[in-house]
Amino acid sequence: MDLPVDEWKSYLLQKWSLLPTSIQFTISTAETLRDIFLQSSSLLQPEDEMFLKRLSGGYLVDKDPEAPLFYREEGNKKFQEKDYTGAAVLYSKGVSHSRPHTEDISLCYANRSAALFHLGQYETCLNDIIRAQLHGYPERLQPKIMLRKAECLVTLGRLQEATQTISDLESINNFTVKPTLVDSRFQILQKNLCHLKMKIQEKKNLTEILPAALPKAFEDMDLREENEQISSASSSVTLCTDPLKGRYLIATRDILPGELLVKEDAFVSVLNPGEMQPLHHGLESKWRTRVTNGDLYCHRCLRHTLATVPCDGCSYVKYCSQECLQQAWELYHSIECSLGGLLLTLGVFCHIALRLTLLARFEDVGKIIRKLRDETSLKDICSPESKNLVKILNYDLGANEENGEIVQTPIPGCDISGKYENNYNAVFNLLPHTENHSPEHKFLCALSVSALCRQLEAASLRPLTTGLKSSKLKAAAAPEFCPDLDIWGVAMLRHMLQLQCNAQAITTIQQTGSEENIITNSRQVRLATGVFPVVSLLNHSCSPNTSISFCSTVATIRASQQIGKGQEILHCYGPHESRMGVAKRQQKLRSQYFFDCNCPACQTEAHRVAAGPRWEAFCCNRCRTPMQGDDMLSCGNRSCTESISRDHLVSQLQDLQQAVEMARKLLRNGEL
């Protein structure tokens, strides 16, 4: 999911193993990312690109004109079964494959509006009715959809609009002309209209005092006092740096449990595709009815919705609204649209790396280009001990830079005034740990980025100059951009290596089971992967003093316990003491984040493990002392004479586990 698909990984790792030792040595000992990228890129052959193209072609991301009818019929089956949620999702799949301003898309929108109506989502239903009409909903079916519109408006209490809709419906030529034959559908429509008119009159005559809207009891609060030094952070924390720790946050005052410390919108996020396997022709239908994250969440803001709005150019990317669609198109999707299958094949990290460079254009491109050239020509920032840690180009390049000098900044990622912001400069200064990644991994990332750059060039896409009309983008001369995209390839490689240690999983809680059940199952699932420059400042602890939650693309960090003034603000990178033992935590942190954890939880548990186990498998039923022995167990307390067969205890334990599982099943089925 994060890295390329297994077939591409295996292919490149085999390619690496077949390289001459001298070439492997050259790449392994390269001092800069530029050297790694250029050496690896030169090894990408046409047959490699053809293999990648075949893999990418397995993903159905283009519009298929035959798919809308299939999904509409499948949605109708769900609708007849009164599974309106399932029907809405299938109609959405039909919408995503339809071309704009066609009967296909208008019918899918209209059918979805019916499902949404039965789900009680009246505002969303109205939006779909408007969309169906904008895309040319057939005149012969207008009465049906207008009646639904009137019903929504009446339910929402918008009586004047409902009256006007009924009037418009009655004025339709086909409706006002008296039919020569008795038409049952005509009579049903008349009956429904009469019923709606009575309902409108009842609501008009009903005089009731509506209670004032109650404030939200648990409305999420913004930061009380935003930090002047760190954007998106509370004034109760400050940024420090240390030769061993790198950058980190500490408390400037005593912090109480529950206090909001950071509230940061992701600088970039990419929706995880979920279990989206490539198609194997001949084995199954190419149109799948299985639901993935991409069918339920906006690809820009990650909002959950049953009424997605598709990209006009591809079938994969969907949004919650026209506004999100337009913003995404202007920021990055105009470039990504034709690369859907390739990006799914190369993985989320490669997708994020591309999107980061695309977003970089909306800051000062000229300064970023010069920064990239200087950074990639020097030895890369690989570790906190590196001298380059404080010898970075200042983001807001001033007069000193014009004189050929490098501006000294106290902490990497900060601007000349010392402020750390949620911007590309902060992202660029996240550590890539180049020297810690294996040569094979760097080769895999470099060739993947190189293949992506080749596709951008082949499609005549200039990702940093083409189609930019946003006022955010400052004017820059075309020659200032590297024509062969090498510099941007190096930047993307840097980002791919950064992401292993700095990517943040954006999670959500998904519930399973029907509403009728006494209990429901809920689980935390990974919805997307994002980059949060401020959140990345927090160091790890297996027993952290903060907790993190997500709403859309916004990460919120709160104190989970009291934090004293001067204490470090700590976050868990995944391996938590409540979920795994110290040995497994240390192994995971070392392999992914390249450090040995010495947090108090690890130190305490390591001493405990060294002193011996805390428990045995069974304890004495009388005195609770651990039982000892093999087949026959006896109490470890010499004054106690209790003994028992191990097989007997194991049998009892199995019976208990079966009983508990049976109880859970009965509860799920409501059989109290």
From TrEMBL:
Name of this chain's protein: Protein-lysine N-methyltransferase SMYD4
Function: Protein-lysine N-methyltransferase. Monomethylates PRMT5, modulating its transcriptional activity. May also act as a histone methyltransferase. Plays a critical role in cardiac development. Acts as a key epigenetic regulator of gene expression during cardiac development via its dual activities as a methyltransferase and negative regulator of HDAC1.
Domain SET per the UniProt entry, residue ranges: 235-574
Pfam families tied to this protein: SET (PF00856), zf-MYND (PF01753)
GO cellular component: cytoplasm; nucleus
Record's keyword terms, sorted: Cytoplasm, Metal-binding, Methyltransferase, Nucleus, S-adenosyl-L-methionine, Transferase, Zinc, Zinc-finger
Main location: cytoplasm
Domain called MYND-type: residue spans: 298-337
BP GO annotations: heart development; methylation
CDD domains per UniProt: SET_SMYD4 (cd10536)
Cellular location(s): Cytoplasm; Nucleus
Signal peptide (residue range): none
PROSITE patterns reported in the protein's UniProt record: SET, ZF_MYND_1, ZF_MYND_2
Superkingdom in the source lineage: Eukaryota
Reaction it catalyzes: L-lysyl-[protein] + S-adenosyl-L-methionine = N(6)-methyl-L-lysyl-[protein] + S-adenosyl-L-homocysteine + H(+)
Taxonomy of the source species: Eukaryota, Metazoa, Chordata, Craniata, Vertebrata
GO MF annotations, alphabetized: histone deacetylase binding; protein-lysine N-methyltransferase activity; zinc ion binding
